[in-house]
Amino acid sequence: MRHMSPNELHKYSCDTMLRGRKPVTDKEWMLVVNCWAANIAKDMTSDAVRIMALLYNCPLNPEILELISAFQDDRKGGAKPQPSQEENDDDVSSHGLPKANKL
Fold this sequence. Notes:
This protein is mainly α. It is 55% helix and 0% strand. It has five helices and no strands. The longest helix has 15 residues, at 62-76. The termini are far apart.
């Protein structure tokens, strides 16, 4: 992906996640922030997401921003060790976010 300005990244995230609408609810903001985090270079994600949140008056608390950043950084990383069965049984991921439903 080419380099984007913060404005371009915010517009891209709104276009992709919300069909061009501006985020209003916390859920919509989480989608947009997740898209920001997915498109920022690893190890810069946390700082860049905090700056973006300030620029665009994102109402999410800093803990949520950090959890989303950590989740996306983990996705960008290499192979991770397999979690134990105990961790698999939990309803919450290692980032504190609810696990997705298994199909």
